[in-house]
Each structure stands twice: as structure tokens, then as C-alpha cells.
């Protein structure tokens, strides 16, 4: 399956997934890469596992809002991964990908505790719609931990970490960072940042500039990093600077 130019738009429509962590367990490298590219392009945080054992380990240890699970996997098949997670009380919504030849029974996948399934080859539009529906009806979806590279922003706990090291932020700094992380990779205007972090105050872009400067010192300069970029004439953008040199 090849990447499609429409994929950005399709995934872009998937606003409810924004900032959430998704685990894709898929051994077909091209398909896994395509899913990763499509979802991360819009700022979602996607982790990949290429075999069942690695996927099970990651699903156990990571806090994912969703798992996309292929059934035919080396190491440990998708049925076993799914069944094991459910046995352990893991309630993360799981969408399984089934082969078109029907070798694996879709009903059986649901029996092991999967929440939904999609037969390959599938349409990205449909996949995104299904993922969105799973997030919506998940009863216990935890507030997201936004991750941009090794910068993590735990929205519920109001905790920021760079490569595991806790970074103390003032409330306004945290609010600015949260919005930038929710729209990771995208230019965010000073106006949007003002509305988000200073909802009650008069419009003054100097507020944003001062706060971004202090934020940059704490999350970037202190770690010799450059993830918080200035976008001339617009505002700012938060990126995974390990990928961008
Ligand atoms: Ca497979």
C-alpha cells in the first residue's frame, strides 16, 4: 500500500485524535510507515511495533489512547496480543487489521476483546473514522500525554518533561506549551496562543513573546535543543528537532 497525497487531509479531519498517543502494531513495513507518516503529519504521536511481542510490551508500558493491531504478526499473533492485554485488565481500545483472504476470522478477533476490525486493504478515510469513533466511545480515555519528540506534556498532571527530566513551568508557560504541543509541527499564531493562555486579558502580543522566551530557555536552551521555532509573521511552531537536525 503506497502513501496517498490525500492522506494528510483525511488524517487532518481527525481532530479528536490530536495529541493522543497511538500504538500501531504492524509487521508490513510500508503500511506501518504510511500510517506513521499520515498520523504524525498532523501532530499525533504514533509509536510503531513490528512484531507481536514488542507490541504487547509497548501496549503494556505505554499509555496509549488507541492500539491498531494487525492479526498476522511474527512473534506473537494479534489474537494473543489482544487476549493477553484484556486478561491483564488493559482496556485501551483496539482496532484489529484483518487479512482480506479471511484466513483469520473477524468475529474471533472481537471475541478476544478487540473493539473493532477493518479488513485489508482498507480506506484511510474509513480507518480514521473508525479510530475517531473508538476514541469517542472509550469510557475511560485518559487525558492525553502530548509527546513531541522527547518532550512530553502531561495535560492532566500539568507536568512537562524533556527526555524524562522534569521541567518546572509557570502556568502561562504551560498553557502556551500545551497548545503548541497539541498542534505539533504546525505554525500557531500569537493570537491563538493569547486566546488559549490569556483568555481574560487584553490583546498584547508582548505577553506571548515574553512567555515563549522563558519557555524556550527552559525546554530548549537548558537542554541544548531547538524545538520551539519562530515562524516569521505568524507565531511559533513546536517540532521534534531530533528529526529536523
Ligand atoms: Ca501481518
Notable characteristics:
Arc Repressor Mutant, subunit A; 2 domains; 245 residues; 9 helices; Rossmann fold; alpha/beta
Widest beta sheet: strand line-up:
2-1-3-4-5
What proportion of the residues form beta strands (DSSP E)?
15-25%
Poorly predicted ranges:
1-16
* Largest beta-sheet characterization: 5 strands, parallel
Could you estimate the helical fraction of the residues in percent?
A: 25-40%
Bound molecules: calcium ion
Q: Report the radius of gyration as a whole number of Å.
A: 19 Å
Backbone structural class: alpha/beta
Helix tally equals 9
Q: Per the principal axes of the C-alpha atoms, what is the gross shape?
A: elongated
Q: What's the average pLDDT?
A: 82
* CATH architect. name of the largest domain: 3-Layer(aba) Sandwich
Ends distance: 29 Å
Number of domains: 2
CATH classification class of the largest domain: Alpha Beta
The sequence of SSEs as H and E is HEHEHEHEHEHEEEEHEHHEE
Fill in the CATH topology of the largest domain: Rossmann fold
* The CATH homology group name of the largest domain: Response regulator
Number of strand segments: 12
Describe this structure in words.
- The protein is of the alpha/beta class.
- It has 2 domains: about 5-135, Response regulator (Rossmann fold, 3-Layer(aba) Sandwich), CATH 3.40.50.2300; about 145-245, Winged helix-like DNA-binding domain superfamily/Winged helix DNA-binding domain (Arc Repressor Mutant, subunit A).
- The chain contains 9 helices and 12 strands.
- It has helices at about 5-10, 30-40, 50-60, 80-85, 105-110, 125-135, 170-180, 190-195, 205-220, and strands spanning about 20-25, 45-50, 65-70, 95-100, 115-120, 145-150, 150-155, 160, 165, 190, 230, 235-240.
- The strands form 3 sheets. Strands 2-1-3-4-5 form a 5-stranded parallel sheet. The protein has a 4-stranded antiparallel sheet with strand order 6-7-8-9, with helices on one face.
- α2 links the parallel β1 (about 20-25) and β2 (about 45-50).
- α8 (about 190-195) crosses α9 (about 205-220).
- The longest helix has 15 residues, at about 205-220.
- It is elongated.
- Bound molecules: calcium ion.
- Calcium ion binds near residues 27, 28, 70, 72 and 73.
Amino acid at each position: 500500500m503506497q502513501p496517498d497525497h490525500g492522506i494528510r487531509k483525511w488524517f487532518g479531519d481527525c481532530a479528536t485524535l490530536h495529541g493522543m498517543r497511538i500504538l500501531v502494531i504492524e509487521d508490513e513495513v510500508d503500511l506501518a510507515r504510511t500510517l506513521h507518516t499520515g498520523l504524525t503529519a498532523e501532530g499525533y504521536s504514533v509509536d510503531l511495533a513490528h512484531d507481536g511481542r514488542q507490541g504487547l510490551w509497548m501496549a503494556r508500558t505505554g499509555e496509549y489512547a488507541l492500539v491498531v493491531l494487525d492479526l498476522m504478526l511474527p512473534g506473537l499473533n494479534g489474537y494473543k496480543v489482544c487476549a493477553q492485554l484484556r486478561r491483564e485488565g488493559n482496556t485501551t481500545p483496539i482496532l484489529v487489521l484483518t487479512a482480506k483472504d479471511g484466513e483469520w476470522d473477524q468475529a474471533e478477533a472481537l471475541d478476544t476483546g478487540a473493539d473493532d476490525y477493518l479488513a485489508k486493504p482498507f480506506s484511510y478515510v474509513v480507518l480514521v473514522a473508525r479510530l475517531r469513533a473508538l476514541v469517542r466511545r472509550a469510557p475511560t480515555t485518559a487525558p492525553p500525554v502530548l509527546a513531541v519528540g522527547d518532550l512530553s506534556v502531561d495535560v492532566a498532571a500539568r507536568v512537562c518533561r524533556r527526555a524524562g527530566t522534569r521541567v518546572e513551568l509557570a502556568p502561562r508557560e504551560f498553557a502556551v506549551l500545551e497548545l503548541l504541543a497539541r498542534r505539533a509541527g504546525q505554525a500557531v499564531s500569537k493570537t491563538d496562543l493569547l486566546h488559549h493562555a490569556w483568555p481574560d486579558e487584553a490583546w498584547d502580543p508582548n505577553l506571548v513573546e515574553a512567555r515563549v522566551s522563558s519557555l524556550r530557555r527552559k525546554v530548549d536552551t537548558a537542554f541544548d535543543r531547538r524545538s520551539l521555532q519562530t515562524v516569521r509573521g505568524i507565531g511559533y511552531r513546536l517540532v521534534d528537532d531530533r528529526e529536523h537536525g
